[in-house]
Write a structure and sequence with these properties.
Structural class: mainly alpha
Largest sheet: none
Number of strands: 0
Low-confidence stretches: none
Strand content: under 5%
Order of helices and strands: HHHHHHHHHHHHHHHH
Length: 323
Amino acid sequence: MNELEYTYAVARIRAQEGSLLTQSVIEQLMACQNETQCLQLLSEKGWGDPADAHDPVKMLQHEEEKMWKVISEIAPDPTVFDVMSYTKIFHNLKAAIKAVCAGAEDRNVFYNDCSIPGAQMLEIVKNKEFGRFPSMMSEAGQEAYDTLLHTGDGQLCDVILDRAALDAVCEAGRKAEDAIIREYAEATVAIADIKIAVRAQKTGKSQEFLKRALAPCDTIQIDLLAKAAANGMDAIRDYLLGTSYAGGAEALEESPSAFERWCDNRMIETMRPQKYQAFSVGPLVAYIVARENEIKTVRIILTGKQNQFPEEAIRERIREMYG
């Protein structure tokens, strides 16, 4: 791609960044008395389709689709962003395997804004045509299907596919020409590994489980992280303090919600330098991450308002905005 193509795409994204939610808008949402007021405010900010202005699920879905529509229109090479859809593709594979093995289909559980949408994924799994998948999915899909079919162990099925998804992200990052894709992939896998270790420690998972679930990456030594998880939450915090993810140790000490918030904020921090780039794919990647982050934050607020959670319970989950 030449610099002119980058310049045009980045100029379009800069215009789109002007509509990203700021921290002040998040505060306005927090000040709303209920979900209805939040939806009205978001509608005034251009969110959602006017026909579905009172449906939070459709509004958030519309915003995600709108984001990818923008990227598909301006990106000179849309395949650069494939790595950012791996989570959705593997989610679809997981959902299809469970649906086929259970003999029950719910097409509402699938993502359709990715390269293998729900209907196609179901067809492939029903026909056991795992060879039609990309190599990153074929073997794991077959193994997960056989495992669930013969053992009924849904959790093991999840572990197989979640690990395969992380391995695919890591591999794509290492092959990427663009530094920002490499940084995105590394941060995605490392943060996922930390989450896995924390949850495994809380639920008393074995070292064998961690060995299967944790994906190798460059900035986390998964053998040390697994050993730390076996020795308690303090040991995980001590390990993280010696890495570039020391902020996660501080968040863990504060609360589980603070830790989850830190995980997403850490990705925003990784993307923030892209605000100053003009001739690369970086600002487009950062825009996708920023949009996904604000959609998640809005979902947290809407859920909190709908269930009448205390303000402090919602606020401790709010993510940092890119805009």
